[in-house]
Amino acid sequence: MKVVFTGGGTAGHFYPIIAIVQRLNELIDHEKLIDVQIFYMSDSPYDERLLFENGVTFKRLNAGKMRRYFSFKNVVDLFKTGVGIIKALSTLYVLYPDIIVGKGGYASFPTLFAAKLLRIPVIIHESDSVPGRANLIASKFAHRIAVSYPEAAQFFPKEKTALTGNPIRREIAIPMREGAREMLGLTEDIPIILILGGSQGAAIINDAIAQAAPLLTEQFQIIHQVGEKNLEAMQNMTEVIMGKSPYKDRYKIYGYLNEVTLKSAAGLADIIVSRAGSTIFEIAVWGVPSIIIPITDSNGDHQRKNAYAYARAGGCIVIEEANLTTNLILSEINRLMADTTLREKMKQGAQSFARTDAAEKIAQEIILVLKDHADK
User: Fold this and answer.
1) Which value, to the nearest 10 degrees, does the dihedral of the CA atoms of residues 283, 236, 252, 326 take?
2) 8 A C-beta contact, residue 29 and residue 64
3) Euclidean distance between the first and final Cα of the chain, in Å?
4) What is the DSSP string of 60-123?
């Protein structure tokens, strides 16, 4: 028996796939299913270590990105997509998996389209409140559709769509508190602000926080994930901005937060400042009040809609990029930290929004298909 996962080569697509694979492997053992092979098809493996550790074989294929604006790159990428479909057809014909699980993103389209041609059952999962084009197309022939936001359900056939939430890896689902301060070099009794700009970092957030750091560190400690590509520039900038500040050591900059540092930071954070991607679901599970700053030009304006969907649940405050200034982020952090009642309401809102069984539900659907095929 074979299962193929596919998705765009970003953290928001990749890590939920790993979360599903982890639970799927546990169910395979529990159900005593024999010789189940798991594959991941995309234009990039994203994290080869995690694929290896979870017994997933990577299959590379080309995929072109179709932009929503005019660009000559669309012509080139259309050709790439065509080549990708041909490669996906040949790969799937040889493998002939029992099921394909699509996570969305342009890199998933060749595999999902090939699955339709080969009549292979498909399950898709949509992370955002507004679906991407790959999932919208795949929904026409998908066997089952899982969505993270209730708002996304209106775009899909009602009879085969279920609200599951977003799968979260078990490594980071439970925040770590014991020993976390010592590991991160933080002191007791000083509140902690965690800044998450996404896997690539976010320049506009990085700049606003860095400029605010001299004043923020007078009251708070900051853990700031800036993105690996931005690390050196941010270190140089903050060296100048913080100057001879006596609170310089309260500002901790990381290019990337691995599983241990992320769940340690989450366990200590009093407030999280973040983008509006799949990290929202991690923040909700952690139950930490947050300030969400969505990307302005995300496809379908999905980040902005994600942010306001979470705000309606009571889990966050939203700051639009167009309004983001050093003074505003200072003001909002100070306002939130001064209002214990508001923070408690936001914790409750986050916990009501959180869904911890998304990976379980999707993995169970995969198992049902595998067992059905095994019985035939």
Assistant:
1) -50
2) no
3) 12
4) E-------SS--THHHHHHHHHHHHHHHHHHHHHHH--SEEEE--SGGGHHHHHHHHHHT--EE
Checking 176-182 for CB contacts under 8 A at 24+ apart, the result is 176/260, 176/263, 176/264, 176/266, 176/267, 177/264, 177/267, 177/268, 179/264, 180/264, 180/265, 180/267, 180/268, 181/268
- Check: CB of residue 210 under 8 Å from CB of residue 238: yes
Residues forming a β-bridge with 193:
222, 271
Longest dimension (CA), the chain: 72
- Which tens digits make up the pLDDT trace of 348-366? 999 999 999 999 999 999 9
d(CA 245, CA 153): 50
pLDDT in tens, 94-108: 999 999 999 998 899
* DSSP sequence for 219-249: T-EEEEE--GGGHHHHHHHHHHHHTT-TTGG
Q: What is the mean pLDDT of the chain?
A: 92
Instruction: State the CB neighbour count (10 A cutoff) for residue 34.
Output: 8
Element (H, E) at 59: strand 56-60
Tokens of 248: 């310089």
Residue 300: its pLDDT value, please?
65
Q: How confident is the model over 28-55, as pLDDT tens digits?
A: 999 999 899 999 999 989 999 999 999 9
Q: How many residues does the chain have?
A: 376
Share of the chain above pLDDT 70, in %: 94
* CA distance linking residue 363 with residue 107, whole number of Å: 22
Q: Which structural domains are found in the chain, ordered by start?
A: 2-168+356-374 (3.40.50.2000), 172-353 (3.40.50.2000)
Q: What contacts 4, CB < 8 A, 6 or more positions away?
A: 38, 39, 40, 41, 59, 92, 95, 97, 99, 100, 101, 111
Question: pTM of the prediction?
Answer: 0.91
At 202, is the secondary structure helix, strand, or coil?
coil
pLDDT in tens, 273-283: 999 988 999 99
Q: How far apart are CA 273 and CA 289, in angstroms?
A: 9
Structure tokens of 5? 């996962």
